[in-house]
Amino acid sequence: MRVPSTVSVTENLNAPVGLAAVEHLRAVFGDRILHEQLTCDEIPTLWFARESIQQALTLVREQTFAGQRFEMLLDLTAIDERVRVNRAGQPASEFTVVYHLMSFSGNADLRFKVPLFDDDLHLPTATFLWPNANWYEREVWDMFGIRFDGHPNLYRLVLPPTWEGHALRKEHPARATEMEPFTLDDAQTDIEQEALKFKPEEWGMKRASEDSEFMFLNLGPNHPSVHGAFRIAVQLDGEILVDAVPDIGYHHRGAEKMGERQSWHTFIPYTDRIDYLGGVMNNLPYVMAVEKMAGIEVPERVKVIRVMLSEMFRICSHLLFYGTFAQDVGQLSPIFYMFVERERIFNIIESICGARMHPGWFRIGGVAQDLPQGWEVRIRELLDFMPARLDEYDSMVLNNGILKRRTQGVGAYTTQDAFDWGVTGAGLRATGYEWDMRKQRPYSGYENFEFDIPIAANGDCYDRCAVRVEEMRQSLRIIKQCVDNMPSGDYKSSHPLTTPPRKEKSMQDIETLINHFLSVSWGPVIPPNEVSMSIEATKGINSYYLISDGNTASYRTRIRTPSFAHLQMIPAISRGFMVSDLIAIIASIDFVMADVDR
Amino acid sequence: MNWSLESAETAAAPQRGGSEMDEFIRRNVMMVKLEDMVAWGRKNSIWPFNFGLSCCYVEMATAFTSRHDLARFGAEVIRGTPRQADMIVIAGTVFRKMAPVVKQLYDQLLEPKWVISMGSCANSGGMYDIYSVVQGVDKFLPVDVYVSGCPPRPEALLQGLLLLQESIGNQRRPLSWVINEQGIIQREENEVQRVIRGPERIAATELRSPDEV
């Protein structure tokens, strides 16, 4: 571990590709850029009218800037602006559609916004530019009722087809207890089941080809190998997969709506349950985003504690992936071995955080409490114990001939495919492209650690697994550096917006006591701003886009999760394979449904 | 039903006459009512349905693996289809979109069937009082045991299973087709665990400090 450097993370606006793109857009569009918004994440944010957004997106998609491209549509979402107070300088808008583009080659971001009004909610689709826009646009339609002209199948994505209203509009009730009590009699069950029925014609699928009749197989939403409440309808010609339609929304817990209701502080436990295998790593992008808006700098000790726990959860998550991956292609034993390490790690997590899967232990401006005495003993045991076990698993799983034959050359895609579909994380690195947020845009002090970014070459199921296995070894390396070099100091910042605030000062005089009381009861008031914060989560880029309207709760919480993008890609990479290969492909993606539907 | 096992090596061979024969019979022959025997068998051969909704399923799966090993309690034969199972653990959040599916799966379980509601979401909606979540699976399914926690530890699920087994063991069912309305002989209303264990929990005065491992 090197001495902490004072050089901050590359600022996006100053990245050559970002600057060049903005300058080029200014030259082409002139007045048609309605506004250039400043946000505290310093991502260039340009407002376009509905009439010019398609041209702007096409230009950014096809042109190079300073020799680099914006390869990926990282996120596409919307904001209901109707009750927002602090919008100084922004164009009038009731609903704003937001495009978040990302340049991997130039390491920069770009954000476009389009203002819309409630009586005329539509804009052109971007599906012909980026295939992954498909689901994002369906989600926006589902949640806000904004139509995308030219979208091939603009059906609801997340909520049931029988749903009325659009959940993320401000007038839609948030609580189940505000709505009619839920009942489910036999007649209602039939109606719902009928609505969920897969109709191939809706998806432009034929029921027969010239020489054979297709079979439609419904896999899920409860099937042991779909890893949760996920459904995929497949079109089969014999055993060959012709096409597939994933159906999601069976795990939608309304986390984004929840973010508008919970205080900044009390939303933290909800983030744990987004990627429910990632534990406290989910807290990280959220608290860092809030800290950025609040202007909080956290002590070095906090950064290292956060990194250490996040990496432990990365190992935990990868172990579960590793075991279930082997299980899905036919090996029953490995998972029983791998859960031993998971239990060891959970023991450590529990002794530090007090809970196993969802500790919710990070805080705005710090962590919940200091490390307990003797915390490093069990971690050192793990560091001694685990490498040999990982080697054993290599011979048990990765070197197993059957597993190789089942997964090599199956479900392969190129780096370009990955960009087109918004694939990040191990799925991108398996194609041979070295990109990891921890290296490219170090956060929470990752720049001080020595570790490698494993990559593979073929981008198939086997490579995705191999990359994750190597990542576990790198995580162990990072954890070792944390244990060896844990800085002393505070576990909490002294900034006034740190939540819960420091108690010492509250006992001094009435003013600090009042502030302490308000901060604990109502929670902190975060100054109005917008921020997007991304991390390299267990499954890829997890990003929180928060809008504060100067209140005790977020005005809009957008959670960009990696699994959402990855699932959308399944049909594209599984056509022409057999049903049993589809199982291997699903297993190799490593998703959890909470990370898809949120 | 009380019985004990003895290792084959140490058990004495039966002898003619005397009390040893009585002892042998006592050890090897069980005199019970058939319905007690059936209840005992049912209690110790629950076949769970492989079903999970969200985070709780991971802890449920952990209960099946080596460290916790649910097999010790005779309930490890997980079935992939509800038509071969008689117990479902509602492990996770029950979503509005998923509810009709859960209902159908429950309807397909074999009679007699039992439901364990695992975790706060399935118990009551828990921390998700939100438009897309059913506020407790008992809104449309009868629940036998509620396991609390978010997610519950694997040990908590094991305890829930033991409570269910105890309750099944106390149930008596008619052993043949009956004409009158005999039906299931209802067990007594179980006392809430909070009441049973409350005094013991309150009695704890020394809790482990969070400052030490």
Tag the structure with descriptive keywords.
heterodimer, A: 598 residues, alpha+beta, Beta Polymerase, domain 2, Cytochrome-c3 Hydrogenase, chain B, 5-stranded mixed sheet, 3-stranded antiparallel sheet, 15 strands, 39% helix, B: 213 residues, alpha/beta, Rossmann fold, 34% helix, globular, iron (chain B), iron-sulfur (chain B), quinone binding (chain B), translocase (chain B), NADH_UQ_OxRdtase_20Kd_su (chain B)
Sequence of strands across the biggest β-sheet of chain A: 1-2-5-4-3
Strand element count of chain A: 15
Any idea what the radius of gyration of chain B is? 21 Å
Global shape of chain B? globular
Biggest sheet features of chain B: 4 strands, parallel
Write down the Rg of chain A: 24 Å
Secondary-structure topology with pairs:
The complex is a heterodimer of chains A (598) and B (213).
Chain A: H1 16-29, E1 33-37, E2 45-48, H2 50-62, E3 72-80, E4 95-103, E5 108-116, E6 122-124, H3 133-144, E7 147-149, H4 186-196, E8 215-219, E9 231-237, E10 240-247, H5 255-259, H6 268-272, H7 283-294, H8 300-328, H9 334-353, E11 362-363, E12 366-367, H10 375-398, H11 401-407, H12 415-421, H13 426-429, H14 437-440, H15 461-484, H16 503-506, H17 510-521, E13 529-536, E14 541-548, E15 554-560, H18 562-568, H19 570-574, H20 579-589, H21 593-597
Parallel strand pairs in A: 2-5, 6-7
Antiparallel strand pairs in A: 1-2, 3-4, 4-5, 8-9, 9-10, 11-12, 13-14, 14-15
Chain B: H1 18-28, H2 34-43, E1 48-49, H3 55-64, E2 87-91, H4 99-108, E3 114-118, H5 120-124, E4 145-147, H6 154-169, H7 193-203
Parallel strand pairs in B: 1-2, 2-3, 3-4
Helix pairs in contact in B: 2-6, 3-6
